[in-house]
Design brief:
The complex is a heterodimer of chains A (407) and B (65). With 407 residues, chain A is an alpha+beta fold. Chain A contains 16 helices and twelve strands. Chain A is 49% helix and 11% strand. In chain A, the strands form three sheets. Chain A has a six-stranded mixed beta sheet with strand order 1-2-3-9-6-4. In chain A, strands 5, 10, 11 and 12 form a four-stranded antiparallel beta sheet that branches. In chain A, strands 7-8 form a two-stranded antiparallel sheet. In chain A, helix 7 crosses helix 8 and helix 12 packs parallel to helix 16. The longest helix of chain A is centred in the first third of the chain and has 25 residues. In chain B, strands 1-4 form a two-stranded antiparallel sheet. The chains are: A alpha+beta (407), B alpha+beta (65). Chain A: Belongs to the cytochrome P450 family.
Chain lengths: 407, 65
Amino acid sequence: MTDTVEKVATCPVAPHGWPNPLLPEYEQLPEGRPLTQVEMPSGSKAWLVAQHEQIQQLLADDRFSVEPHPTFPIRFPAPQELLDMIARDAKNLLVTMDAPRHTRIRGMALPDFTIRAAKKLGPRVQELIDVYLDRMQEQGSPVDLVQALALPLPAQVICELAGIPEAERDIFTKNAAIMVGTRHSYTMDEKLAANDELMKYFATLVTEKQDNPTDDMLGNFITRATKSEEFDHHGLTLMTKMLLLAGYEFIVNRIALGTQALLDHPEQLAALREDPEGLMPKTVDEILRYFSLVDEIIARVALADVEIDGVTIKEGEGILLLKGLADRDPQQYSSPDTFDIHRDARDHLAFGYGIHQCLGQHVARLMLELCLKSLITRYPNLHMVESSEPIELIDGLPPIHKLTVGW
Amino acid sequence: MKIHADRDRCIGAGLCALNAPTIFDQDDDGMVVLLDSSPTLDNSSDARRLAEDICPSKAIRITDG
């Protein structure tokens, strides 16, 4: 293992930040996936970690931090002003907070993200799905499933969680789609404008909910957070943005990619139709495992020297956790590149691991399960159109932004 | 086997209650509640998998006896 320490390469995950084996650099990960040291654009050192077991071990270790740090591994050359802005905002975002503050703030949101809370949303999510599928039916075969269901449904579910009134939903859905859903269709200026409009709207929403508390996920969080005096108004606005947008693109892609994977594997789809109750949870986990690759990687910085499998990660060094590759780790999963809804993939890292594991995972599961169930029940002949190039990828990489289906 | 659930370590991911609902529950604050500390052999493999591979905060521990 010691010889890998000397192999300092330029970080191969920049600039996209995607641990994607489609990128040739990934083929250079040494056999057996030992920790590999790389140099970040800033000149600081970081370690690439691609083994499932090691990633779990490191994410469960509280000697690693998500908070801003002079040598935190940032995958692009960042000007000081941007770093200052990130550091300012980081104080208000759950994803860039360490324990114990993280534990307190997460606890304020948690009661509205339990399994029971997600289950309560079920009937409303199903109603919304039925509305979109009715529209799809009226439009007639074929349709782009991303525009018809995958993009609008999660936006509406998020509006339900946030208690956003019907009349104001367009502000959210329009701008959220520009920011995350169909990213290559918009310029950076358009995305910044969408961000500004959303931040203005969220600021108003926070004030409204402080003045007239509502019983929904966001309303309850704002009530608890306001009482705690942990945030100022801008901080609450930033947290609102994080809570409402963090999982949006994730679920859009899983609905589209999951549907595509099932249509690509007709035997598995037939098995799922036979036994939807029994196989759906496994199907969802397998979709999550198989498509972990499309996500951003996880980064941390060491606050102390940490030894793992004979390698010492020194205080101040970064770690880049390639969870997408880890979810295809042959030491963890047999035939990892095969999509197989019959396998036990419950330990996938799609939602992360450790104290920052995705808060909204049960809502995400609910949406994915209900969408897939509705699609396969309602359309026994669902199939892909334009099968030679069914997925339109951005810059040759996921996420998906178009999936034409017929029935 | 005996199962232990550490509510101080728990982060409320709810994966135990999702995957082994006869052994674990999630309270209104999201935290783990142990329903059955000595499950039958049928359920024990799920408990072991949860403890070793799935629980993201390592809040589940299994001891002999």
